[in-house]
Amino acid sequence: MMQNTQAVLLEVKNLTKNFGGLQAINDVSFVVPEGKLIALIGPNGAGKTTVFNVISNLFPASSGDVLLAGKSLVGLSPVQIASLGLIRTFQSARVFPGMTVLENVMVGRHRMMRSNLFDQMFWLPRNRRAEADIYARAGALLDIVGLQQFRDSHAIDLPMGAQKMLEVIRAVVACPKILLLDEPAAGLNDAETADLAGLLRAICDSGITIMLVEHNMPLVMGIADEVLVMETGRLIMSGKPHIVQRDPRVIAAYLGMEG
Amino acid sequence: MVEAVQIGLGGILQGCTYALLALGFSLVFRVTGVINLAQGGFCILGALLAHSFQAEFGWPILLAAAGGIAVTAMVAAVLGALVFVPGLSRVAHGNMLMLTAGLLALLTGAILLIWGSQPYALPPFSGDQPAVLFGITLPTQGFWIIGSMVSIVLALWWLLHKTNIGRALRACSENPAAAALMGISVPGMTLLSFILAAMIGATAGIVIAPITSLQFDTGSLFSIMGFIAVAIGGVGSFPGAVAGGLLLGLANQFATAYVSSLFSSALSVGLLLAILIWRPSGLFNVGKTRRQDVREEARVQKGLIRIARQAAWIWGGLGLVLAFTLPLWLPGGSLLSSLNITGILFIALIGLNILSGYAGQVSLGQAGFMAIGGYTAGWLAVQYNVAPILGVLAGTLISLICAVILALITMRLRGLYLALATLAFGLMIDSLAVGLDDITGGPSGLTGIPSFSIGGLDFSSPLRMYYLILGIILVSLFLMAGALRSDFGRALQAIRTDQTAAAALGINVPMYKLAAFAISAVFASLAGSLYAFDFNYLSPEMVGTTRSFELVTMMVIGGEGILLGPLLGSGLLTMLPTMFEALSVYKTFANGALLAFFFLYLPEGMFGGLVRAFRVIKNRVGHRPKRSLLHEGRV
């Protein structure tokens, strides 16, 4: 199991979520240590995305607790959760239509902006500095993912792989403490997936904790520090990727064999 | 007692009409999820057609009625096939409400062209002699009204539940995509529901025409009343439509009898607002609600309009020179006056554009804030000789307070309901403008408003007014451009299309909506005050709901989501009727036609179209790789 020396950033305690009679998550507990890249895997319908949605409080938990750096997130709005430094992405890339690629990255900085409406209307030095700073940051990130040449294009004209990258760097520019990525590799081809793997590892190495839900096993096995496996709403095991990969319970869950 | 029963009966008759209109709303809403504001236009069209068949051609009344309904159905078929059905697949959901408002304007304008502006009435179907029962008189027409409502309700029930067509219609309302996979023609069913609703509307107009007179612009009142009825009852519910209609009719009649006819529509709107707050889904919950916040990526297809900084400086400079010298070249005074109106309306449009064009919140009540600004400043100046600038500030403050209250009330409401609440607000202000005649001068307007002045400097001449307005516009544009190119503008645009993703980035969605709403109210109020000082007069229709619709049209045809775009719309719709006097009678018709055309074929508006055209020319002429418009600074 995990080392206790590591500082815990996100802690999920006995989380349960019922939709009517259906128990989507059943008594799930885990911790995400700071600075690690944790993957949550499991077959379709295992409740992975629901875990994300409950953590980011898109729907309230039926019971249980979620702690970010020791502070409970239960009952907080998605906006409050984001302002505490938990930023999430969505299963289908949700770039903002009607904005350029560059603007899409810049809007991610919102939670860190300290200039108020008055500064902005009069284009005061504080706002000018903030805008120059975010412009530089966004440009640098676009360079890293190779989207610099499309910076002035309409964001929804990008191919799906590029939109996924864009959504990831939009989240990164918000300087999150922890990044929750919901199936970032869905819909990507192998080359794009390899790029994404490199990007995620680099983000994590720069000090941002990442938790991702993913189906793509090679991606997960290649980059995750720790893997959590869910099946039908329960956490069935956790551990290092190569150990999880060989566990009979995991193989059974994926291949549908009994025992 | 007899009197109360008599009034109640009147209310039921009126309520039956509203209920019929509401049934049409519900039918179209069930199939498409759209509130079709054109409904009231079909109502008037049917009645006036029947009148012409009866009076001009001498047809018997029932035949004339059938003819009116049939021709209305044909008109609906054409409008539905050319505008409504294509709109559903191209126009963002929130904008469909504005598109149908455009259809209403189109119908109203066409009726004005054909029948003129005088009121019409049909003869009663069964003679003038009223029926008397226990001392209560009931016009025989009442039986026709109640009878047609009951038979339409039964026919609709039979159609929807007992026939194949009905099953197909219901399938489209439950799940259009699955219905299409099952081989149901969703556009066909949509068109059918649109035509059926128009026929129900025409029937309502025809049966009510003998007891109330109708004219070209009664349609918007009918649309609004039918809509209020349907919102009270629960949008999409047929029993709700009937109950809402009857309740509204009764409330209206009792308010007219016991309070004042001037306040009856304020009361209806108050009723609506109360229901929207208390039970946003209406009295009769249909059980399932259509999702209003579905992401509309597919429909936000209009291209991006971004102008490079250098080009912006060059064009901005040219524009400034033009704006400052324009009065020197203009021949007559009337052109200058309408330039001033263009500018004043543009000030209101700057605000509306921030709310709708950037933040994506539909508002159909913008003129309500113009009215608050105009009447406050005007009344203070006329009654208490308050300096105009203080009056403007007072009006702005009241508008701001109203906007914040309205936004807090409607914060829980989304999409459709927010638009409807703004419409209700506009209507409430309309009826207060008529009703509070001590302050507003009632229907005949507030006269004797002085010209604008600051200290000793007065702006009584159109030329001075021109430079005042220009100055205000430039300051406003400077401030808004600063905010919109910064974090504020990006946050608004993010909210426009995806509130969930915006919230996940820490954008406080309700707060930003509130800010956009407040800003739009301040600009509208300022424009309203200037309007009053410019005309030295203010009447309810100058700042009424028609004006709200006109502002929306101007914004859309000019180019929403582009700060300067609405200026072109405001200029076109204000200047054209001035330059070509003969055109002014086509104004309402053209408003509607232009709105529909731009929504369907040029959603980026005239401004976006121009930028695109320049880009094409630039790419043809110079063969540099295109980076942005006029990047090299050459024209």
Care to give the gist of this entry?
Chain A is α/β, with parallel strands linked by helices.
Task: Tell me about this structure.
Chain A contains ten helices and ten strands. The two termini of chain A are 23 Å apart. In chain A, helix 3 runs parallel beside helix 6 (160-172), helix 5 packs across helix 6 and helix 6 (160-172) packs parallel to helix 7. Chain A has two domains: 8-94 and 174-255, 3-Layer(aba) Sandwich (Rossmann fold); 96-157, no CATH class. The mean pLDDT of chain A is 88. Chain A is globular and about 60 Å long. In chain A, helix 7 (190-205) links the parallel strand 7 and strand 8. In chain A, the strands form two sheets. In chain A, strands 6-7-8-3-9-10 form a six-stranded mixed sheet, sandwiched between helices. A four-stranded antiparallel sheet of chain A has the order 2-1-4-5, covered by helices on one side. Chain A has 259 residues and is of the alpha/beta class. With 635 residues, chain B is mainly alpha-helical. Chain B has two domains: 2-288, ABC transporter involved in vitamin B12 uptake, BtuC, CATH 1.10.3470; 324-550, no CATH class. Chain B has helices at 2-32, 39-55, 61-90, 93-115, 141-162, 164-174, 176-181, 186-208, 218-233, 238-258, 264-278, 309-329, 333-358, 366-384, 388-410, 415-435, 437-440, 462-484, 487-497, 499-504, 509-535, 545-558, 565-579, 587-601, 605-621; strands at 131-133, 136-138, 446-447, 453-454, 457-458, 537-538. Chain B has a two-stranded antiparallel sheet with strand order 1-2. Chain B is globular, with a radius of gyration of 25 Å. Chain B starts with a helix and ends in a 14-residue tail after the last helix. Chain A binds chain B through residues 56, 58, 77-79, 82-83, 87-90, 94, 96-100, 103, 106-111, 113, 115, 117, 120-123, 127, 130-131, 152-154, 156, 170-171, 174, and chain B through 295-297, 300, 302-304, 306, 479-480, 482-483, 485-488, 490-491, 493-494, 496-498, 500-509, 515, 561, 627-628.
